[in-house]
């Protein structure tokens, strides 16, 4: 993971801390439930939350930690403002990438880092009365890959996801079942498939599941040098396949949305792809825009 790690850490850690003046503090829980790989759990519970609050699971990049993502993203401030809870998982792996390659993590109920994160959701429901219908997931880079994986393997848990610079769920799948394995075929954008094939990768992660899948928003920078831009099209194809949209025919194309030089492709109510022209691997987290996708505001 060294190459990936070096490309990511400097840019992402340069964010100024966004956590001054909060009503509460970041806390850690050690015993939150089944956690086969030893994922760390941090959370931000504002002093005041709404009844049956929403939950955002916010997942860090390689070299990051739950604490770094708390400090570098606007979710805690927004939680104070809108009364939801944030959980920040922390990777147990060397280099702190997430395991998005093993059979376990890519299979519903089979274990891996994904399973530990879902245990945190169960803990949040039991502890803070989080609304089961308003559980959301987002992340950057390796955390973005995990966001796609969680949406695919645990569609029963999450209502929506936002992916900042990831790859399609299963794109890092290791031929040998390797845990937290790098996959350069995928990272360089050479793992391509039809939308039907990508959708089947999702369906195979939870065989027999017949419920709905999380609404997905996929962001990607056009000059991403860590997870190359072709991965944007593959992610979009995957979820277009799941929802029965045509990835080649967005219903709407909005230029300069939500920012100048970003183009938002709307495929239907459940899928948007946002291409950030001239942006590298670090697509800035949008904050309030995210809360709109989640339906929190
Ligand atoms: C990389 O992922 C692809 C699927 O995207 C898979 O076919 C291939 O076997 C993986 N490579 C390795 C070395 O595991
Ligand atoms: C959907 O899955 C559930 C749980 O496995 C099952 O009880 C139910 O019969 C299934 N419904 C349909 C329409 O297949
Ligand atoms: C948008 O792209 C144009 C042309 O490349 C550039 O001049 C401008 O600075 C960009 N705007 C922003 C906000 O990045």
Describe this structure in words.
This protein has a single domain (about 5-295), classed as Rossmann fold, CATH 3.40.50. Helices cover about 30% and strands about 20% of the residues. It has helices spanning about 1-15, 65-70, 75-80, 110-130, 140-155, 185, 195-205, 230-245, 290-295; strands at about 25-30, 40-45, 55-60, 85-90, 135-140, 160-165, 215-220, 250-255, 260-270, 270-275. The chain has a 10-stranded mixed β-sheet, with helices on both faces. Helix 7 (about 195-205) crosses helix 8 (about 230-245). The chain is globular, with a radius of gyration of 17 Å. Residues about 5-10 have low confidence and may be disordered. One 2-acetamido-2-deoxy-beta-D-glucopyranose (NAG) binds near residues 171, 174, 175, 183 and 185. The site of one 2-acetamido-2-deoxy-beta-D-glucopyranose has 3 residues, from loops.
Radius of gyration in whole Å, from Cα? 17 Å
The description of the largest β-sheet is: 10 strands, mixed
Protein structure class: alpha/beta
* End-to-end C-alpha gap: 37 Å
Named CATH architecture: 3-Layer(aba) Sandwich
As a percent range, the share of strand residues is 15-25%
Please identify which CATH superfamily we are dealing with: Alpha/Beta hydrolase fold, catalytic domain
Order of helices and strands: HEEEHHEHEHEHHEHEEEH
User: If you consult CATH, what is the topology?
Assistant: Rossmann fold
**Spans of at least 5 consecutive residues with low confidence:** 5-11
Helical fraction equals 25-40%
Side-by-side strand order of the widest sheet:
1-2-4-3-5-6-7-10-9-8
| Morphology | globular
């Amino acid at each position: 993971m060294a190459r990936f790690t070096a490309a990511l850490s400097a840019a992402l850690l340069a964010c100024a801390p966004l956590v001054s003046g909060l009503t509460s503090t970041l806390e850690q829980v050690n015993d939150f439930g089944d956690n086969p790989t030893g994922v760390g759990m941090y959370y931000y519970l504002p002093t005041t939350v709404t009844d049956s609050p929403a939950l955002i699971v916010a997942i860090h990049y390689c070299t990051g930690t739950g604490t770094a993502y708390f400090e570098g993203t606007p979710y805690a401030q927004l939680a104070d403002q809108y009364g939801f809870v944030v959980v920040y998982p922390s990777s147990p792996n060397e280099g702190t990438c997430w395991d998005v390659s093993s059979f376990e993590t890519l299979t519903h109920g089979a274990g891996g880092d994904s399973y530990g994160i879902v245990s945190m959701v169960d803990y949040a429901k039991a502890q803070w009365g989080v609304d089961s219908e308003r559980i959301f997931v987002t992340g950057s880079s390796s955390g973005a890959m995990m966001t796609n994986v969680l949406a695919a393997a645990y569609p029963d848990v999450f209502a929506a996801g936002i992916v900042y610079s990831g790859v399609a769920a299963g794109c890092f799948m290791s031929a040998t079942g390797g845990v937290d394995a790098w996959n350069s075929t995928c990272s360089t954008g050479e793992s391509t498939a039809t939308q039907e094939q990508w959708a089947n990768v999702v369906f195979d992660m939870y065989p027999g599941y017949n419920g709905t899948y999380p609404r997905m928003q996929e962001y990607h920078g056009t000059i991403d040098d860590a997870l190359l831009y072709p991965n944007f099209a593959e992610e979009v194809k995957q979820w277009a396949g799941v929802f029965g949209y045509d990835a080649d025919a967005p219903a709407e194309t909005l230029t300069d949305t939500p920012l100048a030089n970003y183009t938002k492709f709307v495929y239907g109510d459940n899928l948007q792809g946002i291409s950030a022209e001239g942006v590298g691997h670090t697509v800035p987290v949008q904050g309030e825009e995210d809360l709109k996708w989640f339906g929190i505001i």
